[in-house]
Specification:
Layout: H1 2-19, E1 24-28, E2 32-34, E3 39-45, E4 50-53, E5 60-75, E6 78-91, E7 95-99, E8 103-106, E9 109-112, E10 116-121, H2 133-140, E11 141-147, E12 158-166, E13 171-179, E14 186-190, E15 198-203, E16 206-220, E17 224-228, E18 232-244, E19 250-260, E20 264-268, E21 285-293, E22 297-299, E23 304-314, E24 330-332, E25 336-344, E26 347-360, E27 364-368, E28 372-377, E29 382-387, E30 391-396, H3 399-415, H4 446-496, H5 501-520, H6 529-538, H7 543-558, H8 566-589
């Protein structure tokens, strides 16, 4: 009997031990998919754990997640618990792959999932489901690169503009660059875009809204077919569905979409060799050329300046500027180079000036000879040469007299010596005669009272100056505190307006602008993104806080044109609040 009871106890203990084991599994939504499809993988654990580490997902790109869900229920007195980490994956190539182990820590022990196999085939035909968010996104969002000229000449300016087109029924939350375009064999210059403005346009004949993301000016440095690599973005898109809520408003779902502008092939033509001038130095564009002297009459030993000016539009800094040869009787100094350019999407406009300082060595009439500048005009597809007019300089003076004066000066320097006479110091007095310094007593005089009262006057002035500085300093602090209170008032108001997109973002934007104007001491005329970034970096504000501010401002701009749900409004409110608290806490610590 005792033996039976003992075995029963052992069985119960082993049962408890068995049921206390942690289960941690990986599950795929499907084991085979096409290259143009996505797969969902879930890692589930039946006990609460920490320090979850996913596998590397080699050969796959994460397009959604990680998202976390917890299920906790009681059925017939028994507790059921599970925590699930979910990812959406997109394959990047075909083949049979293994998704490695994930790990998690439960009760100070590390548990790992078993590896799972998945097979990726060629792209498959998907059934068209007009309610599928992926299908809607594929047909309503497009990233386009527009090239001004795909058949330029060597060193001819072309431009490339990247635009994100979005249909009116679709909204974009944000985006991030996955791959930036590369311009091999091009001289490139990115054009700054100060504000991302939403504009109306058409795409393939349909009405769209678009944002210009990038602009670049390119000068091809090699002939033949050159490739411009694409711009690739990961875009978070809000897609409406056919389902409506209790109030009749359409439900929206958030979808991450990878879009690419596609690569462009540029066929660069060589410059023609027929009738090519000998003095052509590589200038391509539309130019003007002038030679200017600041004086036409001067006296001997006086200098004048000669300026060689190339102006217009073209590939400045990629060709040799013209030079000039002058008479040996003119002393010519190294030229000073002056540049003034403005870079636009149509090309580089401006001028480059080489200023020569010249000193004539003798009197007479001098002729600055005719010079020329040659460039290639891609519009006319021909070479053009500009000739300068000759310049006449009249130098007045007596050359022989100058030579004689120079010779006498040299002789006097060699023969002149100092001679001392015996009576040279006879004018100095050698006897001392004393006299009284003050005939009147110093005590009780005007100078006595002035020197006595002067320290008290200085102390009085210093006290007034210190109090004035303290007053103005406190005035500035009080003004900032008032502005900060107004900003917090706007921020609190925006929290109560969550759900009303227009009023919420107006109040949120007012809160941030009011705070930044006071904190950074920025006037309305200087309030722009670049100035705010410079001021924040001077204050050594955390880079993550600056990114939060940029995201909120972008959403304030996009909210006027795109549908935004309540969750996004809550996130933007928390971002704005976190940004202000970050700056205030940093200042408190300092």
């Amino acid at each position: 009997m005792k033996k039976f009871i003992f075995l029963h106890i052992i069985f119960l203990l082993s049962s408890f031990s068995f049921f206390s084991q942690v289960e941690f599994n990986a599950k795929l939504s499907k084991n085979s998919l096409g290259l143009n499809e996505r797969v969902k993988i879930e890692f589930s654990v039946d006990k609460d754990g920490d320090n979850f580490t996913p596998p590397s997902f080699e050969n796959f790109r994460i397009v959604g997640g990680p998202s976390q869900s917890i299920r906790n229920s009681w059925v017939n007195g028994k507790r059921s618990y599970s925590k699930t980490y979910s990812y959406f994956l997109s394959p990047i190539k075909k083949g049979s792959f293994i998704i490695g182990q994930a790990s998690i820590e439960v009760d100070d022990k590390i548990y790992k999932t078993s590896p799972v196999n998945i097979n990726v085939t060629a792209s498959v035909d998907k059934p068209v489901d007009t309610n599928d968010p992926d299908y809607i996104v594929n047909n309503t969002i497009h990233l386009v690169s527009e090239v001004s000229n795909k058949n330029p000449f060597l060193n001819e300016a072309i431009s490339v503009t990247y635009k994100l087109y979005v249909s009116p029924e679709t909204g974009v939350d944000n985006w991030r660059e996955l791959d930036a375009p590369r311009y091999a064999n091009f001289w490139s210059n990115n054009i700054d875009i100060k504000n991302l403005n939403v504009e109306n346009g058409t795409f393939k004949g349909q009405p769209y809204r678009y944002v210009t993301l990038r602009k670049a000016l390119l000068y091809p440095q090699k002939t033949g077919k050159l490739k411009i690599e694409p711009l690739t973005l990961d875009v978070s898109v809000q897609v409406p569905s056919n389902r409506r809520d209790f109030f009749g408003q359409l439900f929206t779902s958030s979808v991450n979409k990878t879009v690419s502008s596609g690569s462009n092939i540029i066929n660069v033509k060589p410059l023609p060799t027929f009738n090519k001038p000998d003095n052509f130095s590589g200038a391509v564009g539309e130019f003007d050329y002038n030679v200017i002297s600041n004086k036409e009459k001067l006296v001997l030993d006086e200098a004048f300046q000669l300026s060689l000016v190339v102006s217009g539009k073209g590939n400045f800094n990629l060709f040799d500027e013209p030079t000039i040869k002058l008479s040996n009787s003119l002393e010519v100094y190294q030229p000073e180079k002056e540049e003034k350019f403005s870079t636009k999407i149509s090309g580089i406009n401006g001028k480059v000036t080489n200023v020569y300082t010249i000193v004539p060595g003798s009197a007479g009439k001098y002729t600055i000879p005719q010079t020329s500048f040659t460039y290639f005009n891609p519009k006319l597809e021909e070479y053009s040469t500009i000739f300068s007019d000759p310049i006449f300089i009249d130098v007045e003076g007596d050359t022989e007299k100058k030579l004689l004066l120079n010779q006498n000066s040299q002789i006097s320097e060699k023969t002149n010596s100092i001679k001392l006479s015996k009576n040279q110091f006879s004018s100095f007095k050698t006897k001392t005669k004393f006299s009284k310094i003050n005939k009147k007593p110093f005590f009780n005089s005007h100078y006595f009272w002035i020197l006595l009262l002067l320290p008290f006057i200085f102390c009085f002035l210093i006290v007034i100056a210190v109090k004035s500085l303290a007053y103005y300093k406190n005035k500035g602090v009080n003004e900032f505190e008032k502005s900060k209170k107004r900003a917090y008032k706007f921020l609190e108001s925006s929290r109560t307006l969550i759900g009303d997109k227009q009023k919420f973002y107006e109040s949120l934007e007012a809160a941030l602008i009011t705070y930044l104007k006071a904190k950074l001491n920025i006037e309305n005329s200087d309030l722009n993104k670049d100035e705010i970034n410079v001021k924040l970096k001077q204050l050594k504000v955390n880079e993550n806080a600056i990114i939060l501010l940029k995201q909120v401002f972008d959403n304030c701009q996009l909210a006027r044109y795109t549908p935004i749900n309540v969750d996004t409004m809550n996130e933007d409110y928390e971002k704005a609040k976190s940004f202000i608290e970050n700056i205030e806490n940093r200042n408190y610590e300092n």
